[in-house]
Amino acid sequence: MMGSYTSSELMVARASRELKDGEVVFVGIGLPNLACNLARRLQAPNLVLIYESGAVGAVPSRLPLSIGDPCLVTDSISVCSMVEVFNYYLQGGLIDVGFLGGAQVDRFGNINSTVIGDYNHPKVRLPGSGGACEISTHAKKIIIILKQNKKTFPEKIDFVTSPGFINEQNQRNKYKMQGRGPDLVITDFGVYRFSSENYTMFLSEIHPGISVEDVKENVSWHIDISPALVSTNPPTKEELKIISELDPERIHLR
Amino acid sequence: MMGSYTSSELMVARASRELKDGEVVFVGIGLPNLACNLARRLQAPNLVLIYESGAVGAVPSRLPLSIGDPCLVTDSISVCSMVEVFNYYLQGGLIDVGFLGGAQVDRFGNINSTVIGDYNHPKVRLPGSGGACEISTHAKKIIIILKQNKKTFPEKIDFVTSPGFINEQNQRNKYKMQGRGPDLVITDFGVYRFSSENYTMFLSEIHPGISVEDVKENVSWHIDISPALVSTNPPTKEELKIISELDPERIHLR
Amino acid sequence: MKNKILTMKEAVEQYVQDGDAIVIEGFTHLICFAAGHEIIRQKKKDLVACRLTPDLIYDQLIAAGCVRKVVFSWAGNPGIGPLYGLRRAVENDYPRKVEIEEYTHFGMVARFIAGASKLPFMHLRTFSGSSLLQKNKNIKTIKCPYTDEVLTTVPALNPEVAIIHVQRADALGNAQIWGLMGVQREAAFASQRIIIVAEELVEKEVIRSDPNRTLIPGMIVNAVVVEPFGAHPSYAQGYYDRDNQFYVDWYQVSKNRESMERYISDWIFGVSGRREYQEKLGLDTIKKLNAKEQFSVPVNYGF
Amino acid sequence: MKNKILTMKEAVEQYVQDGDAIVIEGFTHLICFAAGHEIIRQKKKDLVACRLTPDLIYDQLIAAGCVRKVVFSWAGNPGIGPLYGLRRAVENDYPRKVEIEEYTHFGMVARFIAGASKLPFMHLRTFSGSSLLQKNKNIKTIKCPYTDEVLTTVPALNPEVAIIHVQRADALGNAQIWGLMGVQREAAFASQRIIIVAEELVEKEVIRSDPNRTLIPGMIVNAVVVEPFGAHPSYAQGYYDRDNQFYVDWYQVSKNRESMERYISDWIFGVSGRREYQEKLGLDTIKKLNAKEQFSVPVNYGF
Questions:
Q1: D301: nearest CA in chain C?
Q2: CA B5 to chain CA centroid, nearest Å
Q3: Is the ipTM of this complex over 0.85?
Q4: Does residue A52 carry a catalytic annotation?
Q5: Which residue among A82, A119, A132 sits closest to D27, beta carbon to beta carbon?
Q6: Max alpha carbon distance in chain D (Å)?
Q7: What gap in Å lies between CA C176 and CA C216, rounded to an integer?
Q8: Domain map of chain C by residue range?
Q9: Which of A240, B50, B166, D222 could join B171 in a cystine, given CB atoms 3.0 to 4.6 angstroms apart?
Q10: 254 residues of chain A, pLDDT tens digit each
Q11: Where are the domains of chain A?
């Protein structure tokens, strides 16, 4: 809780402000779904929501628990097979913004959502890529959302599920990835961006009530701080009202 | 005209007898379409007709002028895109019988429907392959239907549009074609099959009223005659009746 | 979102440029003659005309001198005979030299799949043993990294413009097709600019009542033209039948150079657009082609 | 043609064999729990269980000891947590060692496309820069013969059996799906034997009234099982909603080995089939999940 809102609400509100009207967004469940639907209710009524399940232009009438909820189908613009989702929409280069989460992110925006520990003898086996690897490869712009601590921001991640910039040389061009890579990382501490010189994460906005020391204590590497560091605008009353309408039982706002 | 039926009617009747109930047939327009619909009315009520336009299980209520006639869609079992027709049905190996015609056929069952003369300076430019090359590659069994004369049965065809056995070694295995190649050739003179030794056409049935001399005069190479040569069974009254119902204006029976 | 409705004249002016690779797809069904005629009226030049089956509409574009190259897999008047316009161009360079680049249907389909998927090529099993393999240098081979098997390949096809005729669309270009779908979806996704031509403009609620029917999403569409009867003499399932007589008659019309040019002059340059074309065609023909009713059993999208 | 209707018991007996590679597809939608339960009841062994999202049904198959290997791309309880049955097998070899072979969604989709197209491989743009490329030796690369670009590849996936749950089918197995279609078409065409499980058996006239809706043609189908409510706790658009509470509760049920085994004993071995499962579930739950009505606007197939 930060004042009269939770860090999840702040993350949702901050993410939603990144979305422009008419953009095509590849949506995941949870906070990204809330962010997209918040944006639809505010500055981006014509945001096109695409779910990897095949629903295009979804207008969910309730909070979807899963990415394949029936409410994403009813009244959507188009439902297509996953062949088309991945070949024509994602690889086809039609996605403006993709949201990704994960268990770990490193300084280059590479994400692990596969395994903690050794791949063959895992300490914790996580779900794996799903469509995350291809979202990170093909969406023009990536927004990463996750809760932050030393474990989720480790010196080295155990597995690269979804490539960010890969290393300080930005290997994306080598692999001819059409997506530009991670644009920002939104956590419960602040908002991070990436240097265009060494493709390394730096703190760009800091959430109200959080100190730079707090941030540093919750990153495993030496995190750069923007000289132009600003304070994240807190969620407005209107944003908070809509968010609570979108998730009345606070399933994703824990 | 041969007695009380035309050579086209004989060709249609003869072809239709090759079709077994439940088989999946890739149908072309003209005589093959008549043969398939004749078979559906007689021994093969459950013949599944597939047209390259994407109509599967078509039950045409009128004579289709083209392979994409609306009557092939109405009441069909499935309509799919051409992506599926070619990838999943044809290349997928689901087609039992494919019909092919053409301007020229050689002794190995290779067919030309592309060009008479030089490819770059054609004497006559024909339509080209369409789906014929892939039908000849993938359908388990091929039935060739065409009118016969020295020009349509030349020593060497000007262009191989649809490979038959290619040469006396049967090159189909080299190319790993799943289709077994041409099974029979039905003309207005007789029915031809292929030797399992040198993959060369031989006369297997001769139509009523046609002499072996007639046949030889209408093939450009020295045609082998089966020692077990039989006379083609003429169309029955029932077959003729159905054929005339299928093409009342005799559009394809000229 | 922006309403994308334009007249055919505006859409062709804005989105079809001289020298463009263009695809007016539709396998027998939903061939957009209205767009082809407008392209002729606007005297577009040097087009690379891509289509599985050039059909009468490309025959007309070629005879009118709009085309410098045809990329195709079957060039004929289905069930009737040759395309004489194309033949005069290929055999006698009349009215201008026209190059051809030839595939099979599967080859063209695979090119559009690769194009729509933004892959540089697609592999397939066809062409082996055929003469096309020698005549078309764009057909190559590749070795499977698992089985060492050699497969043939075709390069992606990514036209500048796709013109897709559909039964119904909303003002944003969300477009639904039923009946034969050919390779329209892939042709649209493969292209850089997309014009949707609709028999019927519908409210978005109609589209959203049956999202599985949407073949092309508005997000990739640049313009929506509402042009009832715009596919004649081709057809639109549920709207009007194919004008088979027109195709039969085309044999004679096109066989002779002068009569084909007269057709172009009378029926294309002689009218301002589809409304006048329809008037010229006459109510009797239109009525005769009117579709009978045979509706689908609806499905429930509720939850 | 032969009526292909079998009971679920008969279909699984006849078409699922020990050691088979099997796919019960369905992306959230139309996951055939009824078939999974019957496979468990018949104590099938050593299955290679292929599916993009193993979901609760594969979690149960694994916990029941039916599976020797899982081929997948996302293994979790969507929106809730992990699949504990799978985790116990992978992390502790309980109840038996289970191998995993892992891709991304796109990788699995491409494997099914290749399988359905009888191509040995498919190329795609993903995996580059990811650790999967090192961990899964089945992911290889190929050089484009046109651009020299290097693309990643996956091998075809051709399971022995596909089980596809659909909304409606006729007795020959002509099957229609609306709403999310996942990769069911490709999974079916890629497989050697296909069992269709239908919410509703319809006359062939219903299918033929809307042929564009047919996802799987009867010609490739071996058996049709009519099993209303057979996808619960997954859902069937237009028939019943997803039982989200079941998925939420599964977290606790499956977290503990004993309670998961009790579930299997009570709800799978404790019933003879779907009818008894429904009775045990109770009318209240079933009623609560009943779909509301929201019908598609019909289209005209006449000409």
A1: C238
A2: 20
A3: yes
A4: yes
A5: A82
A6: 63
A7: 7
A8: 8-102+158-289, 105-155
A9: B166
A10: 446 899 999 999 999 999 999 999 999 888 999 999 999 999 999 999 999 999 999 999 998 889 999 999 999 999 999 999 999 999 999 999 999 999 999 999 999 999 999 999 989 999 999 999 999 999 999 999 999 999 999 999 999 999 999 999 999 999 999 999 999 999 999 999 999 999 999 999 999 999 999 999 999 999 999 999 999 999 999 999 999 999 998 888 86
A11: 7-246
Between CA B137 and CA C129 the distance in angstroms is 9
Report the pLDDT value the prediction gives residue B1, as an integer from 0 to 100: 45
pLDDT at C161 over 70: yes
Distance CA D165, CA D226 (A): 10
What count of other Cβ atoms lies within 10 Å of the Cβ of residue A136? 30
Neighbouring residues of B180: CB distance < 8 A, sequence distance ≥ 6: B140, B141, B142, B172
Its CATH architecture, for the domain D8-102+158-289, is 3-Layer(aba) Sandwich (3.40)
Contacts of C259 (CB under 8 A, 6+ apart): C252, C253
Peptide bond before residue A154 is cis, with ω within 30 degrees of 0? no
Q: Between D80 and C30, whose confidence is greater?
A: C30
CA distance linking residue C40 with residue C19, whole number of Å: 14
Within 10 Å of residue A91's Cβ, how many Cβ atoms?
Answer: 23
Nearest-angstrom CA–CA distance, D243 and D246:
5
Mean pLDDT of C189-194: 98
DSSP classification of residue A87: I
Look at residue C251 and give its three-state secondary structure. Answer: helix
Q: What is the DSSP string of C60-109?
A: HHHHTT-EEEEEES--SBTTTB--HHHHHHHHH--SS--EEEE--HHHHH
Measured distance CA(C67)–CA(C60) in Å, rounded: 10
pLDDT of residue A3: 60
B136–chain D nearest CA distance, Å = 16
**pLDDT band at D1; cut points 50, 70, 90:** low
CB D195 within 8 A of CB D149: no
Interface of A with D in 220-249 (CB under 8 A): none
The span from the CA of C38 to the CA of B195, in Å, is 55
Count CB-CB contacts under 10 A for residue C14. 13
| CATH fold of the domain at A7-246 | Glutaconate Coenzyme A-transferase (3.40.1080)
Task: Residue A94: list chain C partners with CB under 8 A.
Answer: 219-220
User: Which DSSP state fits D136?
Assistant: -
Give the model's pLDDT for residue A1: 46
**Is the distance from CB of B178 to CB of B138 less than 8 angstroms?**
yes
> How far is C106 from chain D, CA to nearest CA, in Å?
12
